[in-house]
Amino acid sequence: MSTTSSSPRFGYWVCFFILSVVTLGALIEAKAHTERLSPAAQTNQKYALACCVILFLLSMIVVILHTRPLLSSAILGTKIEGIVILVQ
To answer: Which of 23, 62, 70, 76 has an alpha carbon 20 to 30 Å from 7's alpha carbon atom?
Structure first.
């Protein structure tokens, strides 16, 4: 009998991770075509890329924490998970 419990939100975290990978890929691809944009638009695109990278890293860390039984107790159902959900 397994003593580990799966979070009901694990599927949501995996979906969010996959969507953040797609978004990050699209932003990196769009970054290659910024030479024609105004400086303000380039700054906005850098800001969007930085936010996307942060959200990608957060979702990746949470998915990894969910897959490790010893580490999952640090995130599952805690205030940390709630804060990460609000940030994203």
So the answer is: 23
